[in-house]
């Protein structure tokens, strides 16, 4: 028998049963060997078979770090503990003494509706199915005595548990599901007006119950078939407006609570009172209906009004934890997706919930951070309108309890640092792309704001140094000219951290490296681009003259910020030595006169301040080791802020702000011109079509008119020649 071919040998090596059997044995042996070495603590380097596995494990770990979501730390707390709870809470039982206006309008409505609703038919079908299942259970009990014993023991255990349940506030159906099935109520404007007057003047509980049932029907209007029908739009508006405006005050007056009474002692006393037990179903119905309304309405004005009234009733959510979770979920969603006013109103509720209910701070923080990251992830540019507001809101939430929030912030910064470390080591495209993204940049910006806002009042030194290391790592990875916007952000973060902490952070080297960019100058390319709206510049902008000017202005501005912080420090002459050397070198090498003037003026200002500090330093008698005297050096001059360099810094920042606003207006004008040009092109195409058709018609008209003229000339010439011939014939 000859040898097998190459393909046959390859197939046999992979698929023969003996080969597979031997492979399973080797796999079991290797797994035992790994577990033995792990338990006995053998050296990994002595096992050559494990080196490849460890390397692949490290690569997998790096991929997991890069692919992990930046909000994974907070998603652990962003879980719906109570799950999806049905919004159908039923109606309250109404008192027969409540006035009702039943007349022809009700009868006509019932006749048009067919007398029987869809809900009652569904209930009848459900009852039939339940009756069949009950009969089957009874037959099974008769046949199997063990099964009947099991049911009896189950009933005994259920009864022994009592009526107390963890989610008892969701199971209070004793007073909520007593609406007669198959009977729909028709709510007229007169009836609603009478209820409102009784609630206002007489503080009537039966009228309040009827009004809350009507409010529930209004909030669920269009979402489900209910037993209450509203006459017209005016009746609908009067129900919603009155309940949202007055019911909270009615509850407080009956419970004898002031508008600011939100202490734990007051709430504990209220929980055990008879008045609260009587009003609890009414309060719950009001809160649940309002939350359902927030999910159904799209008008921002109605949403803001409903949120403002819910904010006044926030203390009542203490007794309904499931409703409180639902409130947080809804308000965070409105905060992330609504307009300016709606987002602000939603955040006020989230902040008050986190402040009043301290146990829910982590839930509020987790949901807001996840929504913020989703927003940053969905956006492709830095021109997000609400990004600044979102980050400030999260910083305000974290500042409510800094020690508790700092643990989550530290975990998030550790995750960002691992991604940066993986990018520096592997240089993989996925890691670098993730670091140079708005999601990553906005996350760093958020934690920089948190550290700078709370560094003076709390001990956040560990977070400060880890954040500085993180920003330094990002700045070291992206050094090319196309990443100038990202480098600007890193330098601004470092300057902010240094200013808030009073710790020296060396940023001059990062700033002066921008002067070393070697780019090809293309004077014909005119590109206008906002550096704050992008993280990576296009190649066309790097080759433009505007890029050279932006680099120089950036260097002057950021060095001004850095030097202004330390302009009165005793070591300022040493701080400015190397930057002055590099600036003089740039001044000597550049050929642009405008650039030379800018650099020369800045050098003169820095040298003047160096001479000023050096002169005052020569007059003192303390040593550099006397830290107290060093801190008090030029303290009076610093408080006065009349030094020449301070004035130069102010003027430079004012010019930078003015230039940024002008550039923003210019970019908006260019966008408007581009839109107008597109519209003109569209309209121009239609106009050209009309013009071409008009010109074609004109050509046809011109051709026919010229043909008619030729025909007329031919006829005239023929008749004139004929007349001349006749005249000659007569003469002859």
Q: Termini, distance in Å?
A: 130 Å
Residue-averaged pLDDT, rounded?
Answer: 76
Widest sheet: strand ordering: 1-2
What structural class do helix, strand and pairing data support? Answer: mainly alpha
- The low-confidence runs, each spanning 5 or more residues with pLDDT under 50, are 31-57, 82-88, 102-117, 161-183
How would the global form be characterised?
Answer: extended
Amount of helix = over 70%
**Amount of beta strand:** under 5%
Number of beta-strand segments:
2
Radius of gyration, in Å, reads: 40 Å
Helical stretch tally: 31
Largest beta-sheet characterization = 2 strands, parallel
Q: What would you note in describing this structure?
A:
This protein has 732 residues and is an all-alpha fold. Among the domains are: 104-154 and 168-296, no CATH class; 389-558, no CATH class; 567-640, no CATH class; 653-690. It is built from 31 helices and 2 strands. It has helices at 6-15, 17-40, 51-67, 72-75, 104-113, 118-143, 145-161, 189-202, 205-219, 233-255, 264-271, 274-296, 300-312, 321-337, 340-356, 361-378, 387-398, 402-426, 429-435, 438-454, 461-477, 484-501, 508-512, 539-542, 545-566, 572-575, 577-589, 593-619, 627-631, 635-640, 644-731; strands at residues 185-187, 228-230. Helix 18 runs parallel beside helix 21 (461-477) and helix 22 (484-501) runs parallel beside helix 25. It is found in: Nucleus. Residues 25-60, 85-105, 160-181, 688-732 are annotated as: Disordered. Residues 25-36, 722-732 have a biased composition (Basic residues). One of its GO terms (biological process) is ribosomal large subunit biogenesis.
